[in-house]
Amino acid sequence: MKLKQADLPQPAADASAASAALTRIIAAEIGYGGGWMSFARYMELALYAPGLGYYSGGSHKFGVAGDFLTAPELTPLYGQALARQVAQILAASSPLVIEAGAGSGRLAADLLPALEALGCAPERYRILELSGELRARQQATLHEHAPRLADRVDWLEELPERFSGCLLGNEVLDAMPTHALRWSDDDPGQSVMERGVGLSDERLVVAERPATGALLAAAEALEVAAPYRGEISLAVRAWVAELARRLERGAMLLVDYGLARHELYHPQRSGGTLRCHYRHRVHEDPFWFPGLSDITSHVDFTAVAEAGFDAGLDVLGYTTQANFLINCGIAELLQEHRDLGGAGQAAGDSVADLRARGAVNVLISPNEMGELFKVIALGRGISGPLLGFHRGDRVHAL
Ligand SMILES: C[S@@+](CC[C@H](N)C(=O)[O-])C[C@H]1O[C@@H](n2cnc3c(N)ncnc32)[C@H](O)[C@@H]1O
Predict the structure, then answer these.
(1) Closest atom, ligand 1, to C-alpha of 294
(2) Cβ(231)–Cβ(211) under 8 Å?
């Protein structure tokens, strides 16, 4: 669904003022840069500029009161199912979990007790988080929902030098800065343009220049039928490559919305996958009140697999979220939840039961998160098939 600006709810005065302050910072940087900024840099500022970016500012972001719902916010059954896969990885490597981009802290608060119940609570649970505001929120969530295990959690200031264990990232890759491009079929000499940000009458506008360097090389390596507009995230590739290089033994488990390359850069998606989220509405104008909307693009899972593979990791599995969760036993967990009475409800509570079933349906339904969301596992020194991929593995499709 496309929404025009007029359809979006107007932000409150303090939020508009914060956005105006961020816009002034962005405009000044465009000025220093000779009138142009890459879209990736724009997205970095719009999401992570200290105190003003979407993730580093004060807006609610996750959950019903925020802008979008993520799987851990929907139901604790998601973390409980994931725990079964994490447990297998920890048993084969080391008792350490690193969670990148932990959002509200909900996944950590569900995973820790679930891992303890499986007899493999990690000795350390480390969180890598760019946003100071979210770090404080994660601390509060853990103290409220997993107080006994909260002292195992600490926050990393930078990527770990070397690590063994399980690195988790739920919807982190789609929130990393992406470059925007246009493949044109009218001028063969300049067929790939980088779509950046310029200023016109003090307003932020799209401004194009020929793509160069690593971005041009990445664009030329794709088989794209011009005319086409789309995104390439060099940041995702660099981040996965860097962590892969530092992984001694264990696996990285990354869950996100995205596709294999041949599906992502298919003529059907000739307008790209850049999307913005504001109060549960999806819109396509990344310049609408900078800092107030989330900005995302679909993940190229082939690029993720290549980045890990080039750093010496094995691609241990790639499948849809639905297959992964079913393989990890989410249906049995739902049944247990019903029998025991989940989330503080009495056994047989039909409202709690309906909610849990509705949430699991959203997680696995092909029309909701089940098909678009994928799970990839990249590992070193781990043998044997991983639980979450034993049926429906699609590594061959990458
Ligand atoms: C869409 S939110 C997902 C939050 C949470 N994992 C969830 O599923 O609810 C993206 C998260 O990734 C974080 N993030 C983005 N890039 C990051 C990076 N390079 N390192 C660590 N965290 C990052 C953001 O600050 C935010 O917490």
Answers:
(1) 1
(2) no
